[in-house]
Specification:
The complex is a heterodimer. By secondary structure, chain A is mainly alpha-helical. Helices cover 75% and strands 0% of the residues of chain A. Chain B has a single domain, classed as MetI-like fold. In chain B, helix 1 packs across helix 9, helix 2 packs parallel to helix 5 and helix 2 runs antiparallel to helix 7. Classes of the chains: A mainly alpha, B mainly alpha.
Chain lengths: 226, 227
């Protein structure tokens, strides 16, 4: 294998393939996270309101979450081909298993007196939801987004096995297929860096969105890892 | 032929159900790889998580490391280990263990940490000592979290064992990659469906285990909390 890290390869490939892979990786992970949030919000609101909907919904998203991404990618491939949707649709589905429970927990944590105060001020159900309940639930939602984004950013790499790009393609095609360790190490490290960077941005977003939360207190994270 | 017909044709071909490359043999291989990796990972992570949770020492470090490990891409870990150790079953097993340890460790640690201090006081009041408190109180009370960690790890291992077929070992991933090379979509989709089936079986297995192993008193309490 020679030297483990060939810095000259990294220096030559900073723009392409490394830079392109990072940009593709960001696209392939941020689009599903955004789509997942868009889908999880109405589902979570519905599940928090009609409690009977929640257990079956939770079962469905948990079972979907257990299905390996590689299986879903290959099953979608004949329909969506080598477009980003082959990766984006399954990854968006996976985020639901993390986001929906966090949104439901967040909405359930809204104190009763806050809800009553909103009603007393003349808020209808919709305005109360958008202007009071969802903002109060923001820390829980962002805690979910943090877990979902780390998971998605690391899972995108698997999409290289069906032929899509991103840091997985760097790992697989430049690295493993050439029996060349440097691109694999670069790919692994950059994936972790991206995950931590997005995580940091989400923490920052939470501080900006919830100025009323005292500084040291952080979003209540769900116990354990998924 | 439509996609459904291709998949149906693959599943109904009797040749795909026999021999060392048949569906039952590949299913058994996949189960064996996953079970072996899970056994080693559990033997490492459960005692470690119990120890850090019980003593409170080293917990932050263990959980921090485990959370950082979650950000690593599984295929990168797998390919790097295989490149370093050579192609074969042992490197694949090592990679699977590396991926399975973090979720088991974190959940076991958090499960023991979350045990109600009142229960610990009661155990001490009944005359239990450290190891007794751990084995007779903390472990049973933390068991739902330990099982959750094992389930998360098992789902991950079954999924990554599929990718391991790319480096030349057996298991259900063979159908996916061989089918891809031969442009036989029925085989690719059939293999994918079998992998999905196995993941669902893992969920069912852990659901049953939870029903059998978790104390009924704890389950009643959880149900009460949920109401």
């Amino acid at each position: 294998m020679g030297e483990v890290i060939r810095w000259d390869w990294i220096a030559r490939g900073l723009e392409d393939p490394i830079g392109t892979a990072v940009l593709q990786h960001l696209q392939l992970s941020l689009v599903p996270i955004a789509l997942g949030l868009l889908a999880a919000l109405p589902l979570g609101v519905a599940a928090a309101r009609w409690r009977r909907v929640y257990p079956p919904l939770l079962t469905v998203v948990n079972v979907l979450y257990a299905v390996p991404s590689i299986a879903l990618f290959f099953l979608l491939l004949p329909y969506t081909g080598l477009t980003m949707w082959t990766a984006v649709l399954p990854l968006a589905l996976y985020t639901l298993a993390i986001l929906v429970p966090n949104i439901v927990d967040g909405l359930h944590q809204v104190p009763g007196h806050v809800r009553q105060a909103a009603t007393a001020m003349g808020f209808g159900p919709l305005r109360r939801l958008v202007l009071v309940e969802l903002p109060v639930a923001v820390p829980a939602v962002i805690a979910g987004l943090r877990v979902a984004s780390v998971a998605t950013i690391s899972m995108v790499s698997v999409a290289s096995m069906v032929g899509l790009g991103g840091l997985g393609a760097l790992i697989l095609r430049e690295g493993f297929n050439n029996r060349f360790a440097t691109p694999i190490i670069v790919g692994v490290v950059l994936t972790a860096v991206l995950a931590f960077a997005v995580d940091g941005l989400l923490v920052l977003a939470q501080r900006l969105l919830t100025p009323w939360v005292p500084r040291p207190a952080r979003g209540r994270e769900r116990k354990g890892v998924r | 032929m439509s996609i459904y017909e291709l998949v149906a044709a693959w599943f109904s071909d009797p040749g795909n159900w026999t021999g060392p490359g048949g569906i039952p043999a590949r299913f058994a291989e996949h189960t064996a790889y996953s079970a072996a990796a899970m056994a080693v990972a559990a033997a490492i992570a459960v005692p470690l998580g119990l120890a850090t949770g019980h003593t409170g020492r080293g917990g932050l470090l263990a959980v921090g490391l485990a959370n950082a490990a979650r950000a690593l891409p599984t295929i990168g870990v797998m390919f790097l280990v295989v490149l370093a150790m050579g192609i074969g079953l042992v490197p694949v097993q090592v990679a699977l263990v590396v991926l399975a340890v973090p979720p088991i460790l974190v959940n076991t640690h958090e499960g023991v940490r979350a045990v109600d201090p009142g229960l610990r006081d009661a155990a001490a009041g009944m005359g239990m000592r450290g190891p007794q408190v751990l084995l007779r109180l903390e472990l049973p009370v933390a068991l739902p979290m330990v099982l959750l960690g094992l389930r998360t790890a098992a789902v991950q291992v079954v999924s990554t064992a599929t990718i391991a077929a790319y480096v030349g070992v057996g298991g259900l991933g063979r159908f996916i990659f061989d089918g891809q090379n031969r442009q036989e979509f029925g085989m690719v989709a059939g293999g994918s469906l079998l992998v999905a089936l196995m993941a669902v079986l893992v969920l069912v297995f852990f659901w049953l285990l939870r029903r059998l192993a978790v104390s009924p008193g704890l389950r009643a309490r959880e149900a009460a909390v949920r109401e």
